[in-house]
Amino acid sequence: MSGSAIESTHFSCRDFDVWRESINVVFDVERRSQDGNRPFTASVEAFQLGDMVVTDAVLGAQRYVRSSARVRRDGMDHFVLNLYRTGGWIAETARGEFEGRAGQVSVLDLSCELISDEPDCHLVAMFLPRSLIEDRLPNLGGLHGSAPTGPYAMLLAEYLDMLARRLPFLHSGDETALAGAACQMLAACLAPSLANVEAARPGLELVLLRRAKRYIEGHLNSSALNIDAICNIVGVSRRTLFRLFEQEGGVLHYIQGRRLERIRAVLSDPNETRRISDIAAEFGFLRGDHFARAFKHQYGETAREIREHQNLDDRRDTSSVQQSRRQGFDDWIRRLPS
């Protein structure tokens, strides 16, 4: 249906046996001895992107196992990339023991044996068939159980985080393009050749733009917020930064707009009693006439008029996520192509 959300499904439980049955499509799971009788919870939101499945999950502590017998029995030939927003892992593979922490991305080759002990965590997982990526990343299996490192690995982590946050608000019909862009990002970040990086440039620049915007958002009332500071944090040249913000009307235009938005939010707070000029100065508007013109131009009202309308409802309209009740994420994993 045009305008509908990407197909998704939600699973949650507080019973480890129920979770074991659900995740059994990929792993055998066990409670860790150190967890004793601690309560267990699992909550998984899954999205289907063509031949990929992306999940955003909050999970209790457990041990994941893919034994040699299990590998031979199910013949699963997929990769899983896990971004740990919180938590981490200690994995045992045929190549040794690997440990990772929050903020890193682990690579699992499901055609290989694995034991992974994981505490409570919040993670984003991307399941994809080997055939989807093997031409671009023929050596991906060499990272089994471990985590790539370096600046490109950090970009990959940010990309997976951004993708998972945006999926509930994206429209059906975009799945193939999203899956293709994800494969390009994987290739660029895990095998950063000139060709791979160029192919993934739109995705890479989207991550860099998000990084810049997050820094700007956290420093709107700082006098040290300037072009050079943003370049240093994002790790790009001034020329690249200017290109990233072309669709925003330029970096300085974007910063001014976000500062005006923050001021507007402050003025709409009924508990805020400071003078308008003091609030404007906090966000870098030292000249009252400049602030007045910029504010009126952006909102069509003066700051004083906004303050008088403190009770204006500015709640953003958010679309509810379309949920599929016909199938769960375990069904989707089973249907991924070999």
Strand order of the largest sheet: 1-3-4-11-6-9
Total number of helices: 14
Q: Strand percentage, roughly? A: 15-25%
At the first level of CATH, the class of the domain at 8-149 is Mainly Beta
Mean pLDDT: 88
Please name the fourth-level CATH homologous superfamily of the domain at 8-149. Answer: Jelly Rolls
Low-confidence stretches are 311-326
What is the distance, rounded to the nearest whole angstrom, between the alpha carbons of the first and last residues? 29 Å
Approximate shape: elongated
Structural class: alpha+beta
Strand tally is 11
Q: Which CATH architecture of the domain at 8-149 would you pick?
A: Sandwich
Mind describing the biggest β-sheet? 6 strands, antiparallel
What is the helix/strand order? EHEEEEHEEEEEEHHHHHHHHHHHH
Q: What is the share of helical residues?
A: 40-55%
Compute the gyration radius: what is it?
24 Å
The CATH topology annotation of the domain at 8-149 reads as Jelly Rolls
Q: Determine the oligomeric state from the structure.
A: single chain
Question: How do you describe this structure in short?
Answer:
With 338 residues, the chain is of the alpha+beta class. It is built from 14 helices and eleven strands. Among the domains are: 8-149, Jelly Rolls (Sandwich); 215-308, Arc Repressor Mutant, subunit A, CATH 1.10.10.60.
Q: Any overview of this molecule?
A:
By secondary structure, the chain is α+β, with helices and mostly antiparallel strands. Among the domains are: 8-149, Jelly Rolls, CATH 2.60.120.10; 215-308, Arc Repressor Mutant, subunit A (Orthogonal Bundle). It has 14 helices and eleven strands. The protein has helices spanning 16-23, 68-74, 130-133, 151-166, 175-190, 194-199, 201-218, 227-234, 238-244, 251-267, 276-282, 288-299, 303-308, 329-334; strands spanning 8-13, 28-30, 42-49, 52-59, 62-66, 78-86, 88-93, 96-101, 105-109, 114-118, 121-129. A six-stranded antiparallel β-sheet has the order 1-3-4-11-6-9, with helices on both faces. Strands 2-5-10-7-8 form a five-stranded antiparallel β-sheet. A hairpin with a 2-residue loop joins strand 7 (88-93) and strand 8. It is elongated and about 75 Å long.
